[in-house]
Amino acid sequence: MTTRAEAIKAIEAAHVLQNYKRHPVVFVRGSGSHLVDTEGREYLDLLSGIGVASLGHAPPELGAALTAQAGELLHTSNLFFHPLQGEVAERLARLSGLPRAFFCNSGTEAVEACLKFARRYWRTNGADERHEIVAFEGAFHGRTFGSLSVTAGEPYRTPFAPLLPGVRFVSATDPDGVRAAVTDRTAAVILEPIQGEGGVRPIPAATAAAVAEVCVATGTLLIADEVQCGLGRTGRPLYSTALGLTPDLISIGKSLGGGFPVAAALMSDAVAATVAFGDHGTTYGGNLLACRAALVFLDALENGLLERVTAAGHRVRQGLDALAADGDAVHEVRGDGLMWGVEVDRSVADRTVDCALARGLVLNRTAGTVIRLLPPLNISDDDIDEGLRRLRLALVDAGATLPAS
């Protein structure tokens, strides 16, 4: 007898482009940090849709806000201003220190906008030769041509080459290399304050200092890609501040809509002043539903969520450190707040995600050997403890040598 999940997967196999290697589980509902599949089995979610379900699954306040807005007005296009967009922009300006926002639908679009605006800045200022970009090894900024051009992984890049010229990659552990890479032809340096797809790797303090130094010395613009690590993920509004960086442009997304697609490119007045009518655009970006979702998230962020992430992050860190201390299965724990990477042997990493699903736990692997945790920002202490317990079991199932606990 064909199960509901098998029937759904058969439709997918016949009609949906097979560009994702999907797991054999189909989720149909959720609540908080929990998901339920077609067979009624419950899972604890430590991935939150890759950092998107920031308030957990089916948060009632988000559902109520979207329902109310859907009953009033869905879309007017960006040919007309609506006050919700202004309210979100004003609140993001307070959080970031950057007074202007361009709204779009995804983090990739936000990065693409930042790259375009950086080039436009120099063109407007009569320096057409300043069009090159310095990016970092291990970076992931998206899959559109511009964002892919500053993404470092060859498996992402090679099938679509040639990409945009003028991009130079440097090591995140080489401050002198950063200084040498920036020239009088450099428009911007782009970095993730914590590399997400690259293995949850915070940019070292010495490298961040070199970036800040060389950008000030040369006038080069700094783009901070905070799509994954920003908006409370580390217990701070933005992680750039922890590194002492003052970006000219910031890309944000993921957490902002609590599950609804919304993102933004934030920028200084100096950059904004060089952008002309028609330089960039979007049909859906900053629509009324998206802005209502963003306001629900920002309300939570400004009313205790940051403090909750800090406390929850300490609890997760303690649990992961204890796991790392039990034998040699875990080689390193990296991250901050509720963004963590657990480095293990590749043979263990190859099996951990599937073993975790079998234990009713959702997480993922990145950079080959890193188990990544991006739980909802409001995850409870009980769910943290249970998630860590299931993670230990999954690692043992995957072949890690850990003592019984």
Helical fraction: 25-40%
How does the overall form come out from the CA principal axes? globular
Strand order of the largest sheet: 4-12-11-10-7-5-6
N- to C-terminal separation? 39 Å
Q: CATH superfamily name of the largest domain?
A: Type I PLP-dependent aspartate aminotransferase-like (Major domain)
Task: Please name the CATH architecture of the largest domain.
Answer: 3-Layer(aba) Sandwich
Describe, in plain words, how this protein is organized in 3D:
The longest helix has 38 residues, at 288-325. 49% of the residues are buried. Helices cover 40% and strands 18% of the residues. With 405 residues, the protein is an alpha/beta fold. It contains 13 helices and 17 strands. The protein folds into two domains: 4-59 and 303-397, Aspartate Aminotransferase, domain 1 (Alpha-Beta Complex); 76-286, Aspartate Aminotransferase, domain 2 (3-Layer(aba) Sandwich).
Write a concise keyword list for the protein shown above.
single chain, about 400 residues, alpha/beta, Aspartate Aminotransferase, domain 1, Aspartate Aminotransferase, domain 2, 2 domains, seven-stranded mixed sheet, four-stranded mixed sheet, 13 helices, about 20% strand
